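Listing S7. Sequence submitted for prediction.
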Amino acid sequence: MDDRTPEQRSRTMAAVKSENTKLEKEFLREIVDDVLREIELYPVDLFGKPDFVHRASRTAVFIDSCFWHGCPQHVRIPTANKQYWVAKISRNRKRDLRVTRELHAAGWSVIRVWEHSLRQPRSRKWWHTRIVNRIRSVITLR
C-alpha cells in the first residue's frame, strides 16, 4: 500500500531527473575534456533520445538508470503497486532494445552504460576509454 496520495506520488515521480543528472554531467565533462568538443547532449532528432552523441562517428551513448531501466544487479521493485512497476520496467527494457536496434539499423553505434558502473572509478575509466577510443577510431579512419 502506498503511503502517499496519487497527487503526492505524481509530484514525487515528476521531480526525478531524467536528464542532466550529476553523474551524467561529470562523465560527459571527462569525455569532452579528453576527446573533443563535438559531443551533443540530448539530441531531439534521434530516435530514443540518447544522453549524448558524437555525430561524426555516429556514436550514441545512453546512461541507463538502474531503477528505470531494470538493471539486473540493482533494480528494486517498489512493494507498493508492484504489478504496475514490474510492467513499467519491462516496457522500458523492451523500448531500450527497440531503440538500440533502430539506431543500429540507421548506422549508429550504440553504447549503453549502467549508471552504477560510473560510480566505481575503475569501471568509469573503462567506459571512458571505450567511448573515447570508439570516437577516435572512427574519426581517424575518415
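Caption to Listing S7: primary sequence and predicted C-alpha cells for the chain studied. The first strand starts at residue 39 and ends at 41. The CA atoms of residues 68 and 89 lie 6 Å apart.
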